[in-house]
Structure formats: structure tokens, C-alpha cells
Amino acid sequence: MSDRYARYERLKFERPADGVLRIVMSNPGKLNAADVVMHRELAEIWRDVDADPDVRCAILTGEGTAFSAGGDFGMIEQIVDDFEVRARVMREARDIVMNIIDCQTPVVSSMRGVAVGAGLVCGLLADVSIVTPDVRIIDGHTRLGVAAGDHAAIVWPLLCGMAKAKYYLLTCDPLNGAEAERIGLVSLCVSDGELDGKALEVATKLANGATRAIAWTKHALNHWLRTAGPAFDASLALEFLGFTGPEAAEGLASHKEKRKPKFT
Questions:
Q1: If DSSP codes are grouped into helix, strand and coil, which group holds residue 12?
Q2: Closest Cα partner for 71 from 8, 20, 12, 117?
Q3: 148-173 confidence digits (pLDDT tens)
């Protein structure tokens, strides 16, 4: 593996086929939750992938039985308590979204288990998203007491329509993979036993395709996402404003205490 990937701590890398890089989110014992390190690395990885001449398609997946279980509570506490951390993580959250949108290399996501938080951002912004029938996709922002920021405003309405986007983003109800495919939130739904093979099949097909034509098609299509830039910036600002208020404090406490939140 080239030196450009040696510095990563929470992301592991494999070369399952010529031109294909598999990126594995890894936070053992925490269902690959995004801590401070992983959050930063998910913002940076797409620039390294884009600059790697040996990578013509990337696969993003999680280690073990989960994709990613959302934001690590320790990181969320720091966001709530420290302005400098809050400002830095907000910038990283923007970079996660915009860097994967601007990455000319096609990205395939392979999701099983639970898919929440920063991992889900990349999973749904991937060019081809593949899930298992029983994956649990949850945008948990309002349950935490903050606005549905990061990727939600920029891509959910475009993928599944405003009515479904509002329902799931306002209620935080989970979606399984079959329903996510039915409403158009993801590209494909396959059995758990087929997931890894299907992701590699699609990635290999893209890696062996016309590299420039695929990259330029992705770039052109992603202008639909770029036109939602003002809505995205507003949602991100409102999300991080929420971290300064009492609802986020109660949302975080209720998660840690494993109880329903008491918003007043």
C-alpha cells in the first residue's frame, strides 16, 4: 500500500482487484463509530483517493458486522463543550460532503448492520450505494437535539423526494435496506451473503470502464448536489448552532443513559 495511506488510523485499506481500493472503517468494539480521528480521516481520504493514479474505483465499507454506528459520544461531548472543537468539526463535516462530491474517482458503498452519522454521509453520497435487506439506516440528528445537517439537506430530497426526506429526517425513524431501495434512497439491495461480492463486481466494472467518461459523468451529475449548496451550508450551520443549546445536551445525556429524551 502506498505511503499516502500509511498515516490513517481508523481506515484500513485493501486492494481486492486491479484499480480497486477498498476502504474499511474500523473502530473495534464501537461498531465503527466515528470518533475524532475517523471524522477527520473521512474528510481527508477522498482527496488522497482522487490523487492516486492506481485507484479507478473505491469501495467504502465497515469492519465486521456494522457499517458505522454514528458519532462517538466522546467527540459529541467535545463539540458541545468546546467552541474550537465545534468549529473544527463543522469544517470537517463540510469537507466530508464536498470532497466526496468533488472526488472524480467513482465510489461504491457497501452497507450492512447499522449505518448512521458520518459513515452514512459517505454511504449515501457514494455514486453507487449497496445495502443488505436488514441494514438499519438512521439519520439521528433531531433525536440528538440538533438540525439534520451534514449530508441530509443536500441529498435526501434528491434521492427519495421531499415527502420521504422530511418524514425520516424529522422523525429519525429507521429504514431497512429493502425500504431504502424501494424509495430510491440507495442504489441496490442484496442479501448479506452477496453484499461484498456485488460491491466488488460493480467497482471492478467501473474500474475497467472508460475512466475519463465515468469521471466526467459523475462530475456533471453532481452539479445537482452543488446547486443545493446554500441549503447544505444553512443546515450545517443550524446543526452546529444546536450543539450550543439545551436540546443537544439533553439528547446526548439521553443517549448515554439509554432513555428517551425529555425535550422541553
A1: strand
A2: 117
A3: 988 999 999 999 999 999 999 999 99
pLDDT tens, 116-139?
999 999 999 999 999 999 999 999
d(CA 22, CA 24): 6
Inter-residue contact 206 to 18 (CB < 8 Å): no
**Beta-bridge partner residues of 136:** 114
d(CA 98, CA 193): 32
Closest CA to 43 of 3, 93, 7, 9: 93
Handedness of CA 148, 251, 244, 25 (dihedral sign): negative
* Rounded-to-integer distance, Cα 55 and Cα 226, Å: 24
Q: Global pTM?
A: 0.95
In angstroms, rounded to a whole number, what is the distance separating the alpha carbons of residues 147 and 239?
4
User: pLDDT digit string (tens) for 11-42?
Assistant: 999 999 999 999 999 999 999 999 999 999 99
Q: Is residue 229 part of a domain?
A: no
At 88, which CATH number? 3.90.226.10
Q: What residues make up the domain containing 193?
A: 11-211
Could you tell me which residues come within 8 angstroms of residue 160 by beta carbon, excluding any fewer than 6 positions away?
183, 184, 185
Buried b (16+ CB within 10 A) or exposed e, 152-163: bbbbbbebbeee
Task: Find where cell 468546546 sits.
Answer: 82
Residue 14 β-bridge partners: 22
